[in-house]
Amino acid sequence: YFKRELYQENRYLFPIHFAIPSEKIVRNLDELEKDKFFAPCNPTDKTTYIYSTEREYYQQYQESFFGITMKKAGWDCLRHYEIIAQGCAPYFYDIRECPYLTMHQFPRYEVLKLMQIADNYLQTEYLDLDAYLTNLQYLVKYLEKKLTTISLAKYIVNLNRG
Questions:
Q1: Whole-prediction pTM
Q2: N or C: which end of the chain has fewer CB within 10 A?
């Protein structure tokens, strides 16, 4: 059996997570023009849920350095993956509190490194753009390798073979 919000090990349950179709991932990271530090859509403020099309929703992430995300009804949600897929870094509130078997493939350490860059900017107004871009490119490549619907299907198939 597979469980998305898995909080403890169980020999009959395997962790599973959300995934994003690879065709949703932007391929031109170098061409994105960012003019916002945080994306306007903020899960702490429902009045910012103003987008009527997927294109508009994705565009605001493409134009932003960071997209705020957090645990709501559960830890895992597609928003985390959409943010990365659009060439934006997640600013994930309380990510350190996420149980290790929940979102077990999610690149927490890399997200924390990017959040440190954001925190430094918020304190000093200096954005280390080289470090940001290096870490973001790694994050998007990781998403392509481990967090797509295809990679999730391979994970399930490989577990069933063992």
A1: 0.95
A2: C
